Amino acid sequence: MTAAAARIAVVEDHDRYRQTMRAVIELMPAMVVAWEAGDGEGALELLAEHPVDLVIVDLSLPGVSGIELVSIIQRRWPTTPCVVVSGHAQRRHADRSFEAGARGYILKGRPAELRDGISAALAGDRYLSPRLAPPGEGT
Questions:
Q1: Is this prediction's pTM over 0.70?
Q2: Which domain holds residue 49?
Q3: CA–CA distance, 120 with 104 (Å, rounded to integer)
Q4: Which of 18, 25, 129, 136 is placed for a possible disulfide with 107 were both Cys, Cβ 3.0 to 4.6 Å?
């Protein structure tokens, strides 16, 4: 019996990067992009109608910020893990994301990190971009 593919949602306001994430995810075994949204409000509407196994959230979204969106998702759907993607390479953004309930913080432009972060979050583990981890802190 084959396990069902993990359903991933992508919340990113930049079309090009959203397409890039979709391409990376769909190359991963047993992963499928279930839906995409360009803002937090749209993501919440879609999530209410179409539950997923993981939500990838851009840190900088119009309207509801990525951190606010993660917090809302964790309150409404506490078993749905979130991973934050960002171009901000400062540890404070990662820390705020984790405080909101994110399971991962991935720097944009690093497909290997996107794959690793998704896999870790789906396994129930926490993932932090290696560029932000202090020496000795694992992902």
A1: yes
A2: 6-128
A3: 8
A4: 129
